[in-house]
Amino acid sequence: MLEMIINPKKAERQPWEMFFVGLVYAALSVFLVDWIFLKDTVLTQYSSIFIVTFTVMFSIPFMYYLIRLEEKKDLVLKGEGSLLREHGKAIFALLFLFLGFIVAFSALYILLPSDVTAKNFQAQIEQYCAINMPLQIRECANQYGVEVPLGGKISASNLEHFFSIFVNNIYVLIFILVFSLAFGAGAIFILVWNAGVIAAAIGIFTNAQIHHLHVGLLRYMIHGIPEIAAYFIAALAGGIISIAVIRHDFKSEKFWQVMRDSIDLVAIALVVLIAAGLIEVFITPTFF
């Protein structure tokens, strides 16, 4: 039923509507998980993963049909410029969906009781600490109500800040490509996971104060929007290839036309990812 809220064609015409769809999907996932699992002694430990899973389940139908629509465009439209413009509509729709996830997760991180938040975002808080305090993961996580067993430390990288961020982003990009190639719309799992991590970072940055939510969003969206756009471009490219492999003969001209377009998308994703890393290291710190 929920997948009928909006269809890909309508989303491309009015991409801003996907923001509200993302809000509904993310908020509904949190409330369902808390209602079903929060009082269970065992399953409550995995609430943070269940929330990601529920959000993914809500999103997969839309992602699948959007990727199919984009793959059809590759077969009809001619010229790289028109193709990229058409794919851009899908990217905007996905970005608004992602922003809806982040706003809903961030608001609920702040508004729900701290003990509930610690369970709902346990894995995301640990990931935040692993990124920002790699030598003190346990102490960092404990500060926000999350218990991490001993031995949770990782070695700090000796690489420069920008290079380490870029390597990490490339790692995520490769995972998204692999997931989208293997499962078509499967890359949405990694993207929802990242939305949860960003939401935890925003909640921590704002000290769980709702009136500071807009500041936290601005802090992480300056570089987050181009970074996530790169991930969505890669997810779209991988999904298009996945569907093309199923639908077309490898020897056909149509198949290689789709492949060329997908390679162009991956190249664009890499350029955008480099720009996002530069913004994160050299621009965002000047404001925050």
Question: Would you write up a description of this structure?
Answer:
With 288 residues, this protein is an all-alpha fold. It has one domain (2-287). The protein is 78% helix and 0% strand. It has eleven helices and no strands. It has helices at 8-13, 17-37, 47-76, 80-111, 114-120, 122-132, 137-143, 161-183, 188-205, 213-247, 253-287. The longest helix has 35 residues, at 213-247. The radius of gyration is 19 Å and the shape is globular. The relative contact order is 0.12. Mean pLDDT is 80; it is low at 150-159.
Beta-sheet strand percentage? under 5%
**What's the structural domain tally?**
1
The end-to-end span amounts to: 42 Å
Helix content: over 70%
Written as H for each helix and E for each strand, in order along the chain, the element string is: HHHHHHHHHHH
Count the helices. How many? 11
The tally of strands reads: 0
Which segments are poorly predicted (pLDDT under 50) over 5 or more consecutive residues? 150-159
Using the CA coordinates, give the radius of gyration: 19 Å
- Alpha-beta content class: mainly alpha
Please state the overall shape, judged from the principal axes of the Cα atoms. globular
Question: For the report, how would you describe the main beta sheet?
Answer: none
Mean pLDDT: 80
